[in-house]
Amino acid sequence: GVTFKVITDINQNANALRTGEIDFSSGLSGEAVKIIREDKNINLMETPGMHVAYIYFNQVNGPTADKKVREALIKAVDTEQLVKGVYQYGEAQPASLPLPPGSWGYDESLESLVPKYNPEEAKKLLAEAGYPDGFKTTIYISDTPHRVKMATILQQYLKMNLNVDLEIQTTEWGTFSEIASSGNADIFGMSWTWYPDPFFFLNKIFASSAIGSLGNGQGFSNSEVDKLLAEALIASEQDERAELYKDALKIIVEQYPGIFYSNENVTWGVAPEVQGLIQRADGSIFLTNEEIN
After folding, report:
1. Rounded Cα gap, residues 171 and 164, in angstroms
2. In what helix (H) or strand (E) does residue 159 lie, and over which residues does it extend?
3. Which of the chain's ends, N or C, has fewer CB atoms near its CB within 10 Å?
4. Residue 5 burial (10 A CB sphere; 0-12, 13-18, 19+)
5. pTM over the 0.85 mark
6. What is the number of helices (H) and of strands (E) in the chain?
7. Could you give the CA distance from residue 152 to residue 143 in angstroms, rounded to a whole number?
8. Could you give the CA distance from residue 188 to residue 176 in angstroms, rounded to a whole number?
9. Is the pLDDT of residue 293 over 80?
C-alpha cells in the first residue's frame, strides 16, 4: 500500500525525507533541491519537464498592444540572468519558445527569432513607439516564491533599461486566475504544463477560441495561427501535425506575445529503498499500471 501525506512546506518535505518520515517527495524546489542533492542518503531524480514559465503581455489594451513595445520589453530583459536569479539551485533551464523542448512540435530553429537582450535597441524601440520616457504598467502574479522572484527581477530590468515603472500585484491563485483570464491584466506571469502534444500549449494559449480563458486571457488573436491550429487538430499523421504546429509557432514567436523564460525540471526526492519509479516529463506519477510494477 501507499500512504499519502500532505506537507505544504517544501523545506519540511526535504526534512521529512532525510529523517525517514516519508520515502518520496515530488515537486521539490528552491533550497530543498540543494539539501537533497547534497544528502548522500537520498536520491534526487531530475528530468526536464513539459513546462514553460512565461510573462504574457496584453495584446489588446495598453502600451503592450503595440508590437514594438512588446519587442522592446523583451529586449530589455536578460532572460538567462533572470532564470539564474529565480532558480538559484538549478531547478530549471532557460527557455525561449512557448512550447517545451520535450514536445514533438518544438522547432529549435525558431529560437533565433526571439529578440536577444539589447537595452540600447530596446530604448530606441520604445521611443519609436511613443514612450521615450517609459510608462507605468502592472504585472499580476500568484503568491508563489518563483513568481515573486521573477516579478522583482523583471521590475528592476524594466526600470533600469526603459524607465518603465512596473507595479507588482500578488494574489492567491483563485483571484489571480480570474484576473488573468479576464483580459484586464497589463501583464501577467504564470506557467503552463501538460502533455507533449502541442495542442495542450499552443491551442490553449494562442487560439482565438481560447480568449477569455486562463490560457489566452491576454487576447492573442491571429487568423493564420487559428487556421494552422485548426488544421493540426484534425490531421491524422503526427508528422503532418508537427509541421502545422511549427508553422503556427513561427507566427506566434514573430508577434512577440511575451517572455518565455524557463522550462522547470520535474524534481523528486527518493529514499534508496524505493525502486522502480518512472519519472515522466509531464510530472504524472504512476505507482502501478500495466507497464509499471
Report:
1. 22
2. helix 145-162
3. N
4. exposed
5. yes
6. 10, 8
7. 12
8. 9
9. no
